[in-house]
Amino acid sequence: TVLLINDKFLEVCTVRGKSMAPTLSPHYNERGEKDRFLISKFLPDVGLERGDVVAFWKPHNPEELGVKRVIALPGDTVEVAREEYPYRKVVVPFGHVWVEGDNWRESYDSNYYGPISQALIVGKGSYIMWPLDR
């Protein structure tokens, strides 16, 4: 779950959960510590690259934001990790990306719901602001 402070070009996100650990909120379960990181909202779906961390409206729950890493871009072929997904290989369609959490055991991501539309992307992660030692 992500809590956003709304602004036109930048937002501060609070990351809850462990799907992006150890990159984001690595101590969420032990200490309840949540990372706060900056999201750039300026042209969020332009210039996406593999490895970018993005905030997006969840396709299965469009009132909630998710944070995941872009794994594949339009035209890329992905081998799906979850047996529950109906296809073993997926070609990411035009205007979509494949996203996954860094902590694959705890992530509800494209391996469950497939590629997400780039129109659902709110912004790209750019900087961990809190805690200061991160």
TrEMBL record:
Q: Which InterPro entries match?
A: IMP2, LexA/Signal_pep-like_sf, Pept_S26A_signal_pept_1, Pept_S26A_signal_pept_1_Lys-AS, Pept_S26A_signal_pept_1_Ser-AS, Peptidase_S26
Has keyword NAD?
Answer: no
Q: Does this UniProt record's set of keywords contain Membrane?
A: yes
Gene3D superfamilies the record matches? Umud Fragment, subunit A (2.10.109.10)
Q: Extract the CDD domains matched here.
A: S26_SPase_I
What is the top EC class of this enzyme, as a single word?
hydrolase
Report the subcellular localization.
Answer: Mitochondrion inner membrane
> What are the alphabetically sorted keywords of the record?
Hydrolase, Membrane, Mitochondrion, Mitochondrion inner membrane, Protease, Transmembrane, Transmembrane helix
Question: Pfam families attached here?
Answer: Peptidase_S26 (PF10502)
State its Enzyme Commission number(s): 3.4.21.-
Start and end residues of each Peptidase S26 domain: 3-81, 90-130
How does the record classify its membrane topology? Single-pass membrane protein
Q: GO molecular function terms here?
A: serine-type endopeptidase activity
One Gene Ontology cellular component: mitochondrial inner membrane peptidase complex
One BP annotation, GO: signal peptide processing
**Which family does the record claim for this protein?**
Belongs to the peptidase S26 family. IMP2 subfamily.
Q: How does it assemble?
A: Component of the signal peptidase complex (SPC) composed of a catalytic subunit SEC11 and three accessory subunits SPC1, SPC2 and SPC3. The complex induces a local thinning of the ER membrane which is used to measure the length of the signal peptide (SP) h-region of protein substrates. This ensures the selectivity of the complex towards h-regions shorter than 18-20 amino acids. SPC associates with the translocon complex.
Q: What is this protein called in UniProt?
A: Mitochondrial inner membrane protease subunit
